[in-house]
User: What shape does this take?
Amino acid sequence: MPDLLFELFSEEIPARMQRQAAADLQRLVTGALVEAGVTYQGARAFATPRRLALHVAGLPARQPDTREERKGPRVGAPEAALAGFLKSAGLTDISEAKIESDPKKGEFYVAVIEKPGRATLDLLAEILPQVIRAFPWPKSMRWGAASAAPGSLRWVRPLRAIVATFGPETEDPEIVPFEIDGLVAGNVTYGHRFLKPEAITVRRFDDYVAKLEASKVVLDPERRKAIIKADAKNLAFAQGLEVVEDEGLLEEVAGLVEWPVVLMGSFEADFLDVPGEVIRATIRANQKCFVLRRADGSLANRFLMVSNILARDGGKTIIAGNERVIRARLSDAKFFWETDKRVWREDKEFARLEKFKNVTFHEKLGSQWDRIERIRALAKELCNVTGADPAKVDRAARLCKADLLTEVVGEFPEVQGLMGRIYAGLIGEDISVAAACEAHYRPAGPTDSVPTDPVSVTVALADKLDTLVGFWAINEKPTGSKDPYALRRAALGVIRLVVENGVRLELRPVLFRTMRAGLDSQQAGKTDPDAGRRMREDQAADLLAFFHDRLKVMLRDQGARHDLVDAVLGNGGKAKSNEVETGSREDFASGNNANDDLLLVVRRVEALGAFLDTEDGRSLLASFRRAANILRAEEKKDGEGAFEAAADPALLKEGAEQALHDALSTAGEAASVALDKQDYAAAMRAMAALRGPVDRFFEAVMVNAEDPAIRRNRLALLAALRRVTRQVADFSKVAG
Assistant: This one.
């Protein structure tokens, strides 16, 4: 079967764009083929610093024929209707349509539209230029004389050649015939920019890859990465060293070269007095080089660079140039480091933190000083739930942002927090205080580790909660894919800190009090205290709902069923503007709602999942649904909540309904006691005891009895079943 080889050769493709560009190229071309009814056996896209390439294997020579029957108007319909039908179906006369009969609608016209498939080559000649013009580069440019014309081609950098061949392995492929802004698709590409820049004539994919390799171009980025890793490891091993792995840097460097050549350089050992993390940041950020370490884990005064050429002198000139730049950058880093050490040692009372009063955190949220004071106040309160030493927490909260004023962090922002820990340790701060200066930023993402020291956990929670409450208060919430202040990440950080450390934190009162402190100065609070309170309640309730949404995302990512999360949260975690979930406004500030405690929500989800995996759980769920369906139908007649009154024991005529009444009373009380103790397994066992009585009730009792009083009483039993089960979860939200 024929294959497609498609290459777009340009001046440059930035490394950070390559992987996404390759994915976009494959998606756009294969998506257009499938939409045209053309299937294929496989596809793979590649990127180098100068080219995007796509190989689509196993394409048919032709698009399949199609046959469509389009129903038209009834026989005898007005001329206008017939004319519209003929036009839409592509017919010239109504006699070209057939007539079919329907017992209800009578006779009507049907047009049979048959379209022969087109040659795949012709389809590609339409698809490929459309893909080029519509390519979703984050940034693109126009160039040359054609750029003055309206609608001229935009590309990431000037596009210089297009390869597009199509054909089976046993024949010479054809060139896909198209032209775009003067560039004609062909079978000619070019080798390495410096080592073999000559033109290369290619036929199909295997031939293309081999000829590129001969012209010093490794097409596959994964292979380039493998070459770099292997060569780097071998060079390091020969010196008794090992490479400090850096997957992000490896990905970037592999996108900067077409023919990777790994070289080793060195710098003066004196620079090793600078913290290793600063050395690594300097070398990585400025020269895209890897650092090396000794067997004992200490940093070595060697580094690895990846060149794009095989130099005649074996790379000596390249190494010397990199060493010269790195030496200069490390000299700066050493100066900054020495300056910062002196300042921290001389200013042990941290008078310089007063500078934060003149550093704006956000124009609506005050200075960095204001933010630190808020974090200190909130962290002190959180000590009650984390068990951390309040004095250490206050010291850590006061110093946690101090390294933002240092020369090193000013030059290398990526080491903030880390340098705070180093500087705090340097002046003899308690180990927990120093650790919190770094760890309070964590977790920085879903794969980042969570701090476990109580001081770090407390300051990290305060930092993230202050961020969330502050931006919620000024209505700067995430919208769609936009989250400029990383609030989703902050919320996930709070959830992981709480869940992974087993912290029992009632979010509702914390959010309310923090929101109150943040909003009391706003105009609504000044002019109308009640309006200010309502604003705080509504915004805090909305933020709590946001936490619930993030929790659902996290649990789903961990394999939990989304419907169980919704069932435990009761209403899916969505707070209403004038009704804070199931609690009253008085409850909101005091935290009388089980959904406040995210740790308990997780445990309830786990217990519910385990229960529903049992036969008792599945049976009770089926019975609940039956009861809910009956209640739903009868409440439409009698009104919502018509059966919420307790069942009258005197009207229980059947043994099965008396047994259910007793079982509900026992199970409800047992579940309530278990829930008060946060013993969710026991609460589920209490629910399991309902299985037998519920099954016997539905087997032996007619719910909608002729006697209205008996009917209402039996429906009240079903409403009681709904109430009792809802203590542990809203079973109506469980799918399946």
